[in-house]
Write a structure and sequence with these properties.
The protein is mainly alpha-helical. Helices cover about 70% and strands about 0% of the residues.
Length: about 240
């Protein structure tokens, strides 16, 4: 007896999520939702807006059953986008731990055991799978320049704001990381971000430089910035890019 082939789950972008949110908003507008102006983003621009829409639809139910039924398909898109986003972030962070442990020569069980990887082989297998998955994703993204361009344009303001913060606060931020390879890499990425800011539209190179700089300034490895506004901008950058 042959099995029915599994259909892969569609991949959703921030643009897909924004469109789903707009459909929900329209349904609620037409139904006269009395809570609509409370916390529903007028336009979905980033992941924080997506989260706000999902939370809104869970908490605000003063519309008829037919409206809530009609918006379910769009809610499903938003929730699946969140899942894909969080899975990707988790895997990036996990890979960073596994790769760092490997590069530093730390005994694999030391950092593998807290994650349920209780042997050298288990750590090796997980790192190898993630390496292959990242390579495959990189190959796909090379052939998907349109979606990459779409994401960059959608997050242009945030990327430029982060790059401006990195450049404007360069000296303060460099003091948060001790001298060494990480400090040198932070210098290179902040300086690269400053150079690439001159482009008319944000580029993948700008995004990479900003993402790497923000990652090197994360709380786990760097001292916190004294300016609370800068701290919050860096935290937002981590949520967006990692």
């Amino acid at each position: 007896m042959s099995r029915t082939p599994q259909v892969p789950v569609p991949r959703y972008s921030i643009t897909d999520a924004a469109q789903a949110a707009a459909c929900i908003r329209q349904l609620r507008l037409e139904a006269g939702d009395p809570d609509l102006d409370a916390s529903f983003p007028a336009t979905v621009l980033d992941d924080l807006d997506v989260d706000a829409v999902v939370e809104y639809t869970e908490a605000h139910r003063r519309v008829g059953p037919s409206v809530r039924a009609a918006e379910l398909e769009h809610r499903a898109v938003l929730v699946e986008y969140q899942r894909q986003r969080e899975t990707a972030r988790y895997e990036r962070r996990l890979f960073s731990v596994l790769q760092t442990g490997y590069q530093l020569g730390v005994h694999p069980v030391t950092y593998g055991a807290p994650m349920g990887l209780r042997s050298r082989q288990a750590v090796y297998d997980r790192r190898t799978r993630l390496t292959r998955k990242r390579a495959a994703a990189g190959e796909r993204s090379l052939g998907d320049e349109g979606r990459a361009r779409e994401w960059l344009d959608a997050h242009s303001a945030q990327l430029r704001a982060l790059a401006d913060t990195l450049v404007d606060c360069r000296e303060e931020l460099l003091e948060l990381v001790d001298d060494g390879p990480a400090h040198d890499e932070l210098v290179r990425n902040i300086d690269a971000a400053g150079t690439l800011l001159n482009s008319r539209r944000p580029t993948q190179d700008l995004c990479t430089a900003v993402a790497l700089a923000v990652h090197l300034l994360r709380p786990a490895v760097a001292r916190p910035a004294s300016n609370p506004v800068v701290r919050e901008q860096l935290a937002q950058g981590l949520r967006l890019l990692w």
